[in-house]
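Long-time lurker. I teach an intro course on protein structure, and each term I like to show students one example going from raw sequence to a predicted 3D structure in token notation. This year I'd like something fresh instead of my usual example. Would anyone be willing to generate the tokens for the chain below so I can use it in lecture? Attribution to the forum is fine with me.
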Amino acid sequence: MGMSGPTDKPFAISKQLVLEAYGRVKANQGAAGVDGVSIEEFEKDLRNNLYKIWNRMSSGTYFPPPVKAVEIPKPGGTRMLGVPTVGDRVAQTVVALTLESRTESIFHDDSYGYRPGRSALQAVEQCRQRCWKKDWVLDLDVQKFFDSVDHTLMVKAVEANTDQRWVVLYVKRWLVAPLQLPDGTLQARDRGTPQGSAVSPVLANLFMHYAFDLFLSREFPAVEFERYADDAVVHCVTERQAREVWAALAERLDSVGLRLHPDKTKIVYCKDTKRRGSFEQVSFTFLGYTFRPRMSRQKDGRFYVGFLPAVSPEALKAMGTQVRDWRIHLRTGLNLTELAARINPIVLGWLNYCVSRGHARLDRRAVGSMV
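-- Reply from a regular --
Happy to contribute to a lecture. Here you go:
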């Protein structure tokens, strides 16, 4: 795609930005969308494909194709994931990059999801430290956030953070792009933003910045939290404070069209050797880690009960399922080096996430049970 000077297009979108967006899409990989075009196929005519995206976006004539709906398993059922076409992912990333340059300067320090230089592990580590300092946790679950988010309020949040008319124009079009269900039928959308689309993470963070982060910081400045997209943990000094925060957040989210899950939102007491009170809930799961009282050993060898995270039973079960699916005992045609080449990258990923820098632990007995 040639890099030329200014054009007479109604919207000034840099070709370099489109190229940068493609680089991010390629790095993330991902499946083909409704057109069946993979990243490899898209690359066969890369220059022309990127030029078409730039030309249409600059002209105001880019209209997104339907988003391919794919069901993926989750504990207790399935989740619908939206898979845009490769070309649409590039176009969405152009907008995401443009919004990121603004939103990164305003987002809260305790927002960790889908942000440059931030990770789920950082959120888990911060959560671990704050659980030691404060006795109570409000474990939040926003019910069907990606299916429920209000389009009008989402557009207002975008408008407040850009002076580029084309950014708002295309966000509006993506919000209402239909879902193509597995049986081929198209489903219109008047709310929500599909999980899996390239622009959804920054839109979700922007919405929750106003709906959650700023509200909590303003109304309860002494309360601390960690948020990863729609998943959040709030740390409180007392049970009474936790209940006040719960009631206030429930009302706040309801006012913007969201709802706290009545069964999954709960108050938790961070019980350990020093905190010996009794309470119904003494554990919660956050980003694949279950926090609960656990036996630990001090440097002098003595044992104590700490409120600590370790990989959750659900995450362990998923790992075990994958290990069994490898059916290693049947891979008699592969030597150890070949087996290691296939397995090590996956196991290394688990280790990096589950035991990185001592943030949490992987139960050795549980690992043994996986195989």
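Some talking points for your students: Residues 356-371 have pLDDT under 50 and may be disordered. The longest strand covers residues 289-297.
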